[in-house]
Write a structure and sequence with these properties.
The chain has 277 residues and is mainly alpha-helical. The chain has 14 helices and no strands.
Length: 277
């Protein structure tokens, strides 16, 4: 009875909280159709009359930046990095969970330790090492993202794999499947909710990441979307807010679309990964 009494209040509270989180995105989209002067003076008003400029900010933003070129690099880096993280970390988590021994415990401990180390501690040696290993390209930075994304992904996958019945894998091996076939034909389909959860988290991280591409990539050849948007900031603090809001809107669309398509798996994957079997 108490839960039913408090349910309307909780619904109202979470609705208001969700509006607080969504409002910044709405403000960015709204201001992308306003003149720069009105963005500075009236950032929270609806674009009407003199303040409305239509698609001019989008045209200006595309003109000032190599947006589509950077968009291509961001898509390539994000898709390849997430695919590599999912395959490598899920296989590692399966090995750690199923093969009991000192090696698996050490690997799992190192992965957890990687989640604790602050990025600022490894930022400088990382840039030097990436330059020494010739990783300053879209394929090279994938290796860097794998290293930074492995800790959380393995932690979540290990929790999920523990809940997968061992009898299912044993039945597949009895039917003639080798370990790789068992993993890709049996384990991967069962891991789908957890894989979608990890994919969404990593896509939002890699797509919006600014610091790692700046440190690792060769800026004269390769630029991602966050980098080219930063170039809309001119000297002496001048910023073309209209063009920047327009480019931010174009940047938000792919991530929001993917998130909406896979949001039903997030809670399921996080809850399953958090259970200790």
């Amino acid at each position: 009875m108490r839960e039913k009494k408090h349910q309307p209040l909780l619904t109202l509270a979470f609705t208001l909280l969700s509006l607080v989180w969504v409002f910044p995105i709405f403000a960015v989209v709204m201001n992308s159709f306003k003149k720069k002067v009105y963005i500075n003076r009236y950032p929270f008003t609806w674009p009407t009359g003199k303040s409305f400029v239509g698609w001019d900010n989008y045209v200006e933003g595309l003109r000032k930046t190599h947006f589509f070129n950077a968009f291509g690099y961001s898509v390539f880096i994000t898709v390849v990095s997430v695919a590599v993280i999912l395959i490598c970390t899920s296989m590692t988590a399966w090995y750690i969970t199923r093969v009991k021994g000192a090696v698996s415990k050490i690997v799992y401990t190192l992965c957890l330790f990687a989640m604790v180390v602050p990025f600022q501690m490894v930022m400088y040696p990382l840039s030097k090492l990436a330059d020494f290993l010739k990783l300053s390209n879209p394929l090279g930075i994938v290796v860097v993202y794998l290293g930074f994304g492995a800790g959380l992904a393995i932690f979540m996958f290990c929790g999920f794999v523990r809940n997968v019945p061992m009898e299912v894998e044993e039945a597949a091996m009895i039917d003639g499947c080798n370990p790789l076939q068992t993993f890709f034909k049996v384990v991967i389909p069962i891991l789908k909710p957890s894989m979608v959860t990890v994919a969404i988290l990593d896509i939002m991280w890699i797509w919006n990441d600014y610091l790692l591409p700046v440190l690792v990539l060769d800026q004269k050849k390769y630029q991602t979307v966050p980098i080219v948007i930063q170039y809309l900031k001119g000297g002496y603090g001048s910023i073309d807010w209209g063009a920047m809001m327009a480019m931010l809107t174009l940047t938000i669309i792919p991530v929001v679309a993917f998130y909406l398509a896979g949001q039903k798996y997030i809670i399921r994957g996080v809850a399953a990964g958090a259970v200790k079997g």
